Amino acid sequence: MEKLILTACICGAEVTKKHNPAVPYTVEEIAREAKSARDAGASIIHLHVRWDDGTPTQDRGRFAECFDAIRAVCPDVIIQPSTGGAVGMTADERLQPIELLPEMATLDCGTCNFGGDEIFVNTENMIIEFAQRMAERGIKPEIEVFDKGMIDMALRLHKKGHIPGPMHFDFVMGVNGGITGEVRDLLFMKESIPQDCTWTAAGVGRFEFPMAAAAILMGGHVRVGFEDNVYLSKGVPARSNGELVEKTVRIARELGREIASPEEARAILRLRPRP
Ligand code: KMH
Ligand code: ZN
Question: How many Cα neighbours within 13 Å face the side chain of 116?
Fold first, then answer.
């Protein structure tokens, strides 16, 4: 089976130090968490950033500082900034990190409830605009989907030429408003995309490790990290993102999947060559 690409979502936009004191806010904390994840075997850092007080931001300058700080401690890692940002941000605000020309960035392919009164808005025209801006800059979209209908949206937009191939999906399983995180749900998602696509599973909360194990067995890739879950096991907070990645590596080794290096991940995902 193909080597396993591990993505670490080290920060997110919604989780706070109240959930787990190791959630990073400052540039130094973000670099520390990226390094812990890379050292444990992650080849991609899915990146949100914060101001020092924990407020989520898509500020280009703040992303630039965090890119530099991460590259200083993990020079080979793939940095995948979020264009989702936090619920309520405008499209222009969310798109700022693509000006830093990352190798990949997220492309959220539908609107969904996000718990309580929160709605994560991604209209069809927004998705087309985001996809076009990424394509113009040679940035590979990580097609983030929270439900099956979002896969269908991405496939339609691919057919119309808006989203280039080969497509890489991230199935986010277990958001309060999206598809849940049972194995049958993951199988349904995986079987709904064409065979030449690659995919990652990201289980939210208690679904993190069951989805990781299922994805490892099904030949997919895995995302873990504080954005999705802050516990190493029931009631035991993880001390770092690295601990979550280490646990995933242990599961993968037991199940016979080797871990991809960043260079191997670049080849599997067919990222554009770095300058
Ligand atoms: N914070 C969520 C509202 C992404 O990174 O592209 C959106 C999100 C998706 O995290
Ligand atoms: Zn995210």
Answer: 3
Domains of the chain, first to last: 6-269 (3.20.20.70)
CA 209-211-215 angle, 5° bins: 115
Question: Which residue's alpha carbon is nearest to atom 2 within ligand 1?
Answer: 86
If we measure between CA atoms, which residue out of 238, 193, 254, 244 comes closest to residue 220?
193
Question: Residue 3 corresponds to which tokens in the numbers above?
Answer: 């080597």
Question: pTM for the complete prediction?
Answer: 0.98
- DSSP H or E stretch at residue 63: helix 60-73
Ligand 2 mean position to 20 CA, how many Å? 17
Q: Distance (Å, rounded) from C-alpha 51 to C-alpha 44?
A: 22
**Spatial distance between the Cα atoms of 59 and 107, rounded to a whole number of angstroms:** 18
**Measured distance CA(103)–CA(112) in Å, rounded:** 26
- One-letter amino acid at 268 equals I
Q: Is 108 in the pocket of ligand 1 (CB under 6 A)?
A: yes
Q: How many CB atoms lie within 10 A of CB 160?
A: 9
Which residue's alpha carbon is at the smallest distance from atom 6 of ligand 1?
84
pLDDT along the chain (275 residues), means of 10: 97 98 98 98 98 98 98 98 98 98 98 96 98 97 98 98 97 97 98 98 98 98 98 97 98 98 98 75
User: Please, are residues 132 and 96 in contact by the beta-carbon 8 Å criterion?
Assistant: no
Residue 13 — φ and ψ, nearest 5°? -120, -15
